[in-house]
Amino acid sequence: MRKIFKKIFSPKSYLGDLCLCLFLALLVYITGFLLIFLSEINSGVAGAGIFTVYYVVLLPIFLIPSALLLFVILVIHRYLKNKKNDFS
């Protein structure tokens, strides 16, 4: 299992970078959803469910571009790093 995890999230491939970015986005999404959902259950306020709907609908609009921006930054970093190694 550890080898599979290391191979998928390897810093040696672009696919690994993409998987890492999407995994981090999914982890943030699920963690945030659980925190919001549990706080609404404990609050007992009428109409608190609307926050869950906002979270489920609006957070992916922010989270997916953020993950793709992180991926682009990692790709540029990898490209410049490889280019620097070629000149050495």
Can you describe this structure?
The structure is a single chain. This protein has helices at residues 2-8, 14-43, 49-87. It is mainly alpha-helical and 88 residues long. It contains 3 helices and no strands.
How would you sum up this structure in a few lines?
It contains three helices and no strands. The protein is mainly alpha-helical and 88 residues long.
Write down the overall mean pLDDT: 80
Total number of β-strand segments?
0
Biggest pleated sheet: none
Q: Order of helices and strands, N to C? A: HHH
Tally of alpha and pi helices: 3
Radius of gyration, whole Å: 18 Å
Secondary-structure-based class equals mainly alpha
Low-pLDDT ranges: none
Helix content: over 70%
Instruction: Tell me the span between the first and last alpha carbons.
Output: 36 Å
Percentage of residues in strands: under 5%
Shape: elongated
Features:
88 residues; 86% helix; elongated; mainly alpha; 0% strand; 3 helices
